[in-house]
Design goal:
The chain has seven helices and seven strands; from the N terminus they run ααβαααββαβββαβ. It is of the alpha+beta class. Strands 2-3-1-6-7 form a five-stranded mixed beta sheet, sandwiched between helices. It has a two-stranded antiparallel sheet with strand order 4-5.
Length: 208
Amino acid sequence: MNSDKHKYHASAFFNSGKPPAPAWDRIRELEAVLSARKPFIAPKQLEQKFGILLSPQQEEKDFLAWAEDARENLYQISVMFIDIDKFKPLNAKYTETRIDASILPEAQYLIKRTVAARGGAYGHGGDEFLVILPNHDRAEATAFGEKMRAAFEGQVFNIEGVEEKITVSVGIALWPDNGGGLESVKQAANDAENNAKKEGGNCVKLAG
């Protein structure tokens, strides 16, 4: 009779005071294999030019995921447009090539650091950026917009050894207050940002 015939029998689990039964050894092997396996998470798509912030294509995916959770847990989502003030004169002064090598990547890193794990930051054209903050109401979004504005105001940018100070205009809209989908909320945030620019820039404006 084969002595291994019943080595995985249930009684093998209860060999108190004896060396581990083969069944327990096999369970430990399987646990080790399963613990080493991590669920596949597709990497988020970065903006192609600098590879620092997320891409505009990624923002739609992120928003839909957050909106689904927001409906279930009854919270708001803040959408924020950020635009560098007086960007065209800056380009004319230093050339687009120098701005691309200095101001823009520094600005993207500044936005990425400020947003950190609070939401998503997306490149949206050369001097425009989008931030999506789940679970941020009007007061929280305004406070964060002011934090972002102040971060730019306090940053010294360097262009080939020349120090420059730049400011940003920030427009904020909320889902679902200012639109039923991402595009309509983005438009409201963009309109608010344009209002900030009309008032001279370096300020934060709310939609509506």
